């Protein structure tokens, strides 16, 4: 009787462990992601570019080897999850304007096609990049400041600005550090502002339009330290069913709604 | 009693109006607020007050979807918001089931959820389908839905595939080129079934060309590529014929300038046709019809050009090309009369060298009308007098001498023909046309040693039998053009390319005198490091334009050599 009880207890523990680990294994499924990088025409392959993915939940970074002459890259053992990504190429860094979801499957690689879209105002950005500061990453510029409310509109030119990031605002008459508390994008509270988007924060001190915003890293390295100067945006053009946009703009974000009540 | 009932009904209606008004007021109040929590609170108030407004629930869904998106990566937070968003969208659809935006947003919510909960995407897929059915064909929703359905092609049943094909066909008919290319990219990653593309692609030459180019760039089926290029050329030819008709109507209505411009467009369209049907086997363009249209276009260009006030030298190239194609003496006679009517040439064939260009043409027309005696008479007058020709008219003078020689040859005055050919060669010692004529005449007179001398000179002038390209590199999507001076005989051209190990095979196209002669993937298996293509081709006397194009990767050209086929 005592033996049976012991067996049932141990059996239960084993079952729990198995279920737990199997459950975990199912949740942390890994697979191969194969992709191709093209110029904005969707036809000219980009060789020598490196892609980086950052899992937004775990912070784990996956990096590809440089793309070959056909623009191909491959990353193995990538986990299922939601990712930020960026591409470093000879012409500069290209940043995702949103997040993508990846559902890794053991038996089938996920495929994607990315296109590099250059910023039109390259010259202006290059001038801004000339003002790089050691230990800090230029992330954007101030486009509007309301003195009464200290509401500051920032345009991100590189990477992504997140809540709780520490920034350094620098201009002719401006120089202060602060933590990013509340972010507002298109009138809605947000936790991030992606590249080429504008968002508002409340500044601690007065700033001016044209002031530069730097990301003051607490530690060296990190996802964004990898990239060179901002050249444009990397967009997901096509993919297999297990990859898709979770965040970022799609064609259908805006549109009027027909309703009997209007 | 009746008054009481009427008053009650009025009060109830009034109350409902007030509720609707207040509901709408709260809706706009929420719209003006930036604070998310306050927005949700106000909208919930509105929905409690009047729970039959689908817009309120739609906006609540949007707020939760947006928040879920912003918290993407924080699993529990985003999952909770997506689930709430789904509930609100479903409530909105219960009240207004025909809203394409709500269906699409619900589909997007389920799609996002599937990356967090690992459930299947079938729920999202069903909503996208409904959204597509309800939205207009030109809307972004329609495009996004088509793209998503195509991404899921392998999971669709027969009915859903038919639906997807209809959606995609509509998109392709109306969308701009970049959007069509996006869809083709999705097809490449998820479907790669050529029959699917056959069903989706609309009958448009530019779409067919885009698809064919894509197939080449991605090293896909060359047979499909040729098929679609053939179809594109057929469509272009039909459009050229329609434009030709319109231009003819302008001509008969005396809108000469407009007609001239249209005929120029027709000619450009006809020149673009490279006859891929030679490779695909689909003979969609009738060669005779093509040549007839081409010839007619040239003739009309001459006529409309002169009628609209252009000078002879501005249309002479069209006239020259037309006369090369025209075989009927009667038609040549007509153009002769037309030119006489416009005083480009006179009635009689005189030896007037003051307008050398026109005179050369006049003699050529006379030759085509078999007026050999008249031409020979002109030749005799040259022989009897001393002719001074300015350098700028050298070519026309040489042409005249050639024609006089030809006229003598036609009437079997071979010695006189040789004399005039030699005079032409004196004026232009490197003229291949003259040398070929002279050699043929010398052979007829059994003057073999002289003929051999001329033969040697011809060989010196025509392109060497071997060209070493010295590892000339063609970049991806690059081309190379070279004019070969040949003697009009049938020959076999051998192209030698470098072959690289472990690389995808390059797709190479070879074009000769404006038509595609060969296009396929280079396989150098038989020759180790080299890939060799051998092509039998008919050359023309003089310049022959050779063009080589590679689509999908760079390649090195090593050598071109050729030999005559006897």
Distance between the termini of chain B: 116 Å
Helix content of chain A: 10-25%
Strand order, sheet with most strands of chain B: 1-8-3-6
Number of strands of chain B: 8
Q: What amount of the residues of chain A lies in strands?
A: 35-45%
Structural class of chain B: alpha+beta
Helix count of chain B equals: 23
Shape verdict of chain B: elongated
Descriptive terms for the model:
heterodimer, A: 262 residues, mainly beta, 10-stranded mixed sheet, 6-stranded antiparallel sheet, 2 helices, 13% helix, 43% strand, B: 566 residues, alpha+beta, 4-stranded antiparallel sheet, 23 helices, 8 strands, elongated
Description:
The complex is a heterodimer of chains A (262) and B (566). Chain A is mainly beta and 262 residues long. Helices cover 13% and strands 43% of the residues of chain A. In chain A, strands 1, 2, 3, 4, 5, 6, 7, 8, 19 and 20 form a 10-stranded mixed beta sheet that branches. Chain B has 23 helices and 8 strands. In chain B, the strands form 2 sheets. Chain B has a 4-stranded antiparallel beta sheet with strand order 1-8-3-6, with no helix packed on it. In chain B, strands 2-7-4-5 form a 4-stranded antiparallel beta sheet. The longest helix of chain B is centred in the N-terminal third of the chain and has 31 residues, at 2-32. The termini of chain B are far apart. In chain B, 40% of the residues are buried. The interface between A and B is large, with 47 and 58 residues.
């Amino acid at each position: 009787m005592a033996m049976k009880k012991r067996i049932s207890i141990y059996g239960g523990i084993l079952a729990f462990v198995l279920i737990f680990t199997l459950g975990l294994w199912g949740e942390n499924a890994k697979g191969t992601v194969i992709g191709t990088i093209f110029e904005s025409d969707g036809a000219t392959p980009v060789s020598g570019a490196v892609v980086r993915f950052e899992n937004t939940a775990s912070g784990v970074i996956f990096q590809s080897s440089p793309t070959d002459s056909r623009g191909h890259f491959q990353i193995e053992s990538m986990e299922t999850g939601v990712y930020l990504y960026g591409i470093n190429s000879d012409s500069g860094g290209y940043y995702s304007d949103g997040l993508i979801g990846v559902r890794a499957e053991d038996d089938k690689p996920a495929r994607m096609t990315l296109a590099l879209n250059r910023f039109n105002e390259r010259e202006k950005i290059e001038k801004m990049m000339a003002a790089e500061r050691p230990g800090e990453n230029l992330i954007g510029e101030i486009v509007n400041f309301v003195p009464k409310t200290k509401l500051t509109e920032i345009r991100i030119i590189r990477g992504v600005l997140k809540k709780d990031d520490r920034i350094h605002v620098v201009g002719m008459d401006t120089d202060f550090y602060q933590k990013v508390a509340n972010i507002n994008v298109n009138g809605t509270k947000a936790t991030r502002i992606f590249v080429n988007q504008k968002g508002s924060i409340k500044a601690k001190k007065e700033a001016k339009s044209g002031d530069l915003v730097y990301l003051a890293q607490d530690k060296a390295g990190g996802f964004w330290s990898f990239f060179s100067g901002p050249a444009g945006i990397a967009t997901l053009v096509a993919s297999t069913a297990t990859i898709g946009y979770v965040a970022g703009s799609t064609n259908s974000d805006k549109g009027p709604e027909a309703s009997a009540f209007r | 009693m009746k008054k009481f009932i009427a008053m009650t009904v009025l009060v109830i209606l009034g109350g409902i109006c007030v509720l609707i008004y207040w509901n709408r007021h709260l809706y706009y109040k929420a719209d003006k607020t930036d604070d998310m929590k306050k927005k949700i609170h106000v909208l919930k108030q509105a929905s409690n007050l009047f729970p039959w407004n689908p817009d309120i629930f739609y906006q609540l869904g949007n707020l939760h979807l947006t928040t879920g998106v912003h918290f993407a990566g924080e699993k529990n937070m985003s999952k909770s918001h997506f689930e709430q968003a789904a509930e609100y969208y479903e409530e909105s659809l219960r009240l207004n089931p025909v809203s394409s935006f709500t269906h699409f947003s619900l589909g997007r919510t389920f799609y996002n959820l599937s990356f967090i909960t690992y459930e299947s995407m079938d729920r999202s897929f069903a909503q996208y389908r409904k959204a597509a059915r309800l939205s207009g064909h030109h809307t972004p929703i329609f495009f996004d839905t088509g793209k998503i359905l195509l991404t899921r092609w392998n999971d669709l049943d027969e009915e859903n595939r038919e639906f997807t094909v209809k959606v995609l066909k509509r998109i392709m008919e109306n969308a701009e080129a970049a959007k069509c290319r996006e869809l083709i990219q999705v097809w490449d990653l998820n479907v790669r079934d050529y029959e699917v593309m056959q069903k989706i692609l609309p009958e448009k030459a530019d779409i067919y060309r885009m698809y064919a180019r894509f197939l080449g760039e991605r090293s896909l089926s060359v047979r499909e590529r040729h098929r679609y290029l053939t179809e594109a050329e057929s469509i272009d030819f039909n459009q050229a014929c329609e434009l030709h008709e319109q231009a003819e109507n302008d001509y008969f209505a005396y809108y000469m300038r407009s007609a001239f411009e249209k005929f120029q467009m027709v000619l450009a369209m006809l020149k673009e046709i490279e006859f891929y049907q030679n490779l695909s086997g689909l003979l969609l363009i009738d060669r005779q019809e093509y040549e007839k249209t081409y010839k007619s276009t040239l003739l009309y260009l001459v006529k409309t050009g002169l009628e609209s006030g252009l000078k002879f030298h501005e249309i002479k190239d069209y006239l020259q090309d037309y006369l090369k194609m025209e075989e009927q003496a009667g038609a040549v006679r007509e153009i002769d009369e037309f030119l006489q009517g416009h005083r480009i040439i006179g009635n009689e064939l005189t030896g007037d060298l003051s307008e050398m260009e026109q005179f050369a043409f006049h003699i050529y027309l006379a030759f085509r009308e078999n007026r050999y005696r008249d031409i020979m008479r002109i030749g005799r007058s040259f022989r009897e007098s001393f002719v001074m020709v300015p350098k700028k008219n050298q070519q026309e003078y040489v042409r005249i001498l050639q024609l006089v020689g030809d006229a003598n040859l036609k009437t079997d005055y071979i010695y006189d023909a040789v004399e005039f050919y030699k005079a032409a060669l004196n004026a232009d010692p490197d003229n291949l046309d003259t040398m070929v004529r002279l050699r043929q005449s010398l052979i007829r007179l059994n003057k073999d040693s002289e003929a051999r001398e001329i033969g040697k000179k011809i060989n010196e002038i025509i392109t060497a039998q071997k060209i070493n390209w010295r590892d000339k590199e063609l970049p991806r999507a690059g081309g190379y053009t070279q004019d070969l001076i040949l003697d009009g005989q049938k020959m076999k051209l051998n192209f030698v390319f470098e072959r690289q190990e472990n690389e995808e095979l390059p797709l190479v196209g070879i074009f000769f005198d404006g038509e595609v002669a060969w296009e396929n993937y280079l396989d150098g298996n038989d020759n180790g490091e080299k890939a060799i293509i051998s092509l039998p081709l008919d050359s023309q006397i003089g310049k022959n334009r050779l063009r080589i194009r590679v689509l999908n990767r760079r390649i090195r050209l090593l050598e071109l050599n050729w030999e005559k086929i006897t």
